């Protein structure tokens, strides 16, 4: 059977919700019995987002196989609940690198290399890999950016070619656009949508459906207008008003019959009736009034909350499950170093210190770990957050006042965090980290073991530096418990303070495996302890 492809393009502005829309539709199709997979095409020339600033790109989402990908893949996995692989995300940089590599090897026999056909053929090959490697019947493909971007033109051309090559009956184009609201007149305007569709049609692609996003309800008159001017069926114009929770999006799409319309146009037949009862319960819990707990998230990139997308969502999953509302206080760690935002830290019921790279704001995060330890405030350290928790412990409990990580101080006399031995001679920034899924053995009776309820787990990693085993005995004698280690006992995976309600740090990133219906155990343990501390 020829796989079916659903392409998602964006109009008017970026970050309009293509990723959530694709993820939600993927869920609805999976619920109808189809095997689905999702792919994100990123137009930037970087090979992957691994070396990009979080301010530029937001969060880097890591997959089981170690691929560093776009944050939209987090949406895909959280909604569809299917582990994705490296074929589910590729960039213009990867495409051009592959074509140039082939040219250098002589694969093109001295021919002139051009965007058409060489670049577009490589794009089409990579799109085809998803169905080949996963056996997906339906592949949902999101194109990053906005129609009209010069970087995305090869992607659009590849899609136009696929439309002809594999047959229009096997492709479906969804255009997700934005309706601006004019405050002076109280109107939603459709003209930008009309222009973006005209741009898309000028490329040779006619959308089969338009998802019209807005912050205000949309009248039927506007639906009819968009259908007329953009040449789509009226029932294919789907109003999508901003919701309180993105987990309501599948329910809204189901209500408007989007999935049924798509499979009708693709000539498919559902094998089962969708059951969305659990999603409805989830949304009801979100909307229900709940007691609030205050969480201080001490980070380096808090100006752009998307840099901590999975952390925020994981906290939300655990909070919903435990019947509380987590109110996040975003604290820049550099502010703590300057004596600012201390009141926000002190009023918190729980503290999270997430991952990051570089020296900026490090002492502020260590200050947060110190405050959590001394005042018995529930603390969850993620990757760097675990490392800094260990540095704080070394400085203030073991009296190694200059203890540090060699990431921040190459000449520190007490490198309690140090570079992995097999990474010391590598200089290529794109290939120096421990990435992907690794096993972790849990220590019986520890808080981590209690949270997980099993003896061994597998978690996703993204880091270069490790806890220095030369200090392990000293730490344990003073009350640090290494409650998770690699099966060979060589690498510390989880550390926790014995005499503390909940002070746990993980070398891995638990946030990448949390799901709305299945909150991550460490986040559940943290929220449970925070809820108790707050008396909720």
UniProtKB/TrEMBL annotation:
Record-linked HAMAP family: PyrG (MF_01227)
Enzyme Commission numbers on file: 6.3.4.2
Catalytic activities: UTP + NH4(+) + ATP = CTP + ADP + phosphate + 2 H(+); L-glutamine + H2O = L-glutamate + NH4(+); UTP + L-glutamine + ATP + H2O = CTP + L-glutamate + ADP + phosphate + 2 H(+)
Name of this protein: CTP synthase
GO cellular component terms listed in the entry, alphabetical order: cytoophidium; cytosol
NCBIfam families documented for this protein: PRK05380.1, PyrG
Region (Amidoligase domain): 1-268
Keyword field: ATP-binding, Glutamine amidotransferase, Ligase, Magnesium, Membrane, Metal-binding, Nucleotide-binding, Pyrimidine biosynthesis, Transmembrane, Transmembrane helix
Signal peptide (from-to): none
Pfam families xrefs: CTP_synth_N (PF06418), GATase (PF00117)
Keyword Membrane: yes
Active site: 383 (nucleophile), 509, 511
Domain CTP synthase N-terminal positions: 4-268
Glutamine amidotransferase domain segment(s): 304-528
Pathway the protein contributes to: Pyrimidine metabolism; CTP biosynthesis via de novo pathway; CTP from UDP: step 2/2
Regulation: Allosterically activated by GTP, when glutamine is the substrate; GTP has no effect on the reaction when ammonia is the substrate. The allosteric effector GTP functions by stabilizing the protein conformation that binds the tetrahedral intermediate(s) formed during glutamine hydrolysis. Inhibited by the product CTP, via allosteric rather than competitive inhibition.
Binding site for Mg(2+): 72, 142
A molecular-function term among this protein's GO annotations: metal ion binding
Ranges annotated as spanning the membrane: 6-29
A Gene Ontology BP annotation from the UniProt entry: 'de novo' CTP biosynthetic process
Subunit structure: Homotetramer.
Note, other: CTPSs have evolved a hybrid strategy for distinguishing between UTP and CTP. The overlapping regions of the product feedback inhibitory and substrate sites recognize a common feature in both compounds, the triphosphate moiety. To differentiate isosteric substrate and product pyrimidine rings, an additional pocket far from the expected kinase/ligase catalytic site, specifically recognizes the cytosine and ribose portions of the product inhibitor.
Xref: InterPro entries: Class_I_gatase-like, CTP_synthase, CTP_synthase_N, GATASE, GATase1_CTP_Synthase, P-loop_NTPase
Biological role stated in the UniProt entry: Catalyzes the ATP-dependent amination of UTP to CTP with either L-glutamine or ammonia as the source of nitrogen. Regulates intracellular CTP levels through interactions with the four ribonucleotide triphosphates.
Residues given in the record as CTP binding sites: 14, 149-151, 189-194, 225
């Amino acid at each position: 059977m020829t796989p079916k492809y659903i392409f998602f393009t964006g109009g008017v502005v970026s970050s309009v919700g293509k990723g959530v829309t694709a993820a939600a539709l993927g869920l609805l199709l999976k619920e109808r019995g189809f095997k689905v997979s999702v792919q994100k095409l990123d137009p930037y020339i970087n090979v992957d987002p691994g070396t990009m600033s979080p301010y530029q790109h937001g969060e880097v989402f890591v997959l089981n196989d170690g691929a560093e990908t776009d944050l939209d893949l987090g949406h895909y996995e959280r909604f569809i609940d299917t582990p994705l692989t490296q074929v589910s995300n590729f960039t213009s940089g990867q495409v051009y690198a592959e074509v140039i590599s082939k040219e250098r090897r002589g694969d093109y026999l001295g021919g002139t290399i051009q965007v058409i056909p060489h670049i577009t053929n490589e794009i089409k090959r990579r799109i085809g890999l998803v169905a080949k490697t996963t056996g997906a019947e339906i592949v949902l493909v999101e194109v990053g950016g906005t129609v009209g971007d010069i970087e995305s033109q090869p992607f659009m051309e590849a899609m136009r070619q696929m439309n002809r090559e594999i047959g229009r009956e096997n492709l479906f184009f969804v255009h997700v656009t934005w309706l601006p609201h004019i405050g002076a007149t109280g109107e939603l305007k459709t003209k930008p949508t009309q222009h973006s569709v005209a741009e898309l049609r000028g490329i040779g692609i006619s959308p089969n459906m338009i998802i019209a996003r807005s912050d205000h309800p949309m009248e039927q008159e506007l639906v009819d207008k968009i259908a007329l001017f953009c040449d789509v069926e009226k029932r294919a114009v789907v109003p999508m008003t901003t919701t309180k929770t993105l987990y309501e999006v599948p329910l809204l799409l189901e209500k408007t019959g989007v999935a049924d319309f798509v499979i009708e146009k693709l000539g498919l037949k559902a094998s089962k009736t969708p059951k969305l009862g659990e999603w409805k319960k989830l949304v009801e819990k979100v909307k229900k009034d709940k007691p609030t707990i205050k969480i201080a998230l001490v980070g380096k990139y808090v100006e752009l909350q998307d840099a901590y997308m999975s952390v925020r969502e994981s906290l939300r999953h655990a909070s919903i499950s435990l019947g509380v509302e987590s109110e996040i206080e975003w604290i820049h760690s550099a502010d703590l170093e300057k004596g600012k935002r201390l009141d926000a830290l002190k009023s918190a019921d729980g503290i999270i210190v997430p991952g990051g790279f570089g020296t900026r704001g490090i002492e502020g995060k260590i200050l947060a770990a110190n405050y959590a330890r001394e005042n018995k405030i529930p603390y969850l350290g993620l990757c760097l957050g675990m490392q800094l928790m260990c540095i704080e412990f070394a400085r203030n409990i073991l009296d190694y006042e200059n203890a540090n990580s060699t990431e921040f101080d190459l000449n520190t006399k007490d490198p309690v965090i140090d570079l992995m031995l097999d990474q010391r001679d590598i200089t290529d920034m794109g290939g120096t980290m421990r990435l992907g899924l690794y096993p972790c053995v849990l220590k019986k009776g520890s808080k981590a073991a209690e949270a997980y309820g099993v003896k061994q787990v597998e978690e996703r990693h993204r880091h270069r530096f490790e806890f220095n085993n030369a200090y392990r005995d000293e730490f344990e004698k003073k009350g640090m418990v290494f409650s998770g280690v690699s099966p060979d006992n060589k690498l510390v995976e989880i550390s926790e303070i014995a005499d503390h309600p909940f002070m746990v740090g993980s070398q891995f990133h638990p946030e990448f495996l949390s799901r709305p219906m299945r909150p991550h155990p460490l986040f559940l343990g943290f929220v449970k302890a925070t809820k108790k501390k707050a008396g909720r």
